[in-house]
Amino acid sequence: MRRGIVSGVLLAAGALSLTVAAFQQPPAGQQAPMVVEIDKLKDNLYVMKGGGGNSSVFITQKGIIVVDTKNPGWGQPLLDAIRKVTNRPVTMIVNTHTHGDHVSGNVEFPAEVDIVTHENTAANMKEMRPNSSAPPNPNPRNIFKENNGKGLAKRTFRDTMTIGSGNERIELRYFGRAHTNGDAFVYFPVHRVLHVADVFPGKELPIMDANNGGTAVGYADTLSKMLAFSEKNADVLVNGHSNTTTTNADLKDFIQFIRGYVSEVQAARKAGRTVDEVANSWKPPAGYNAQAARIRSNAQLVFNETK
Question: What is the reported pLDDT for 72?
Answer without folding.
Answer: 96
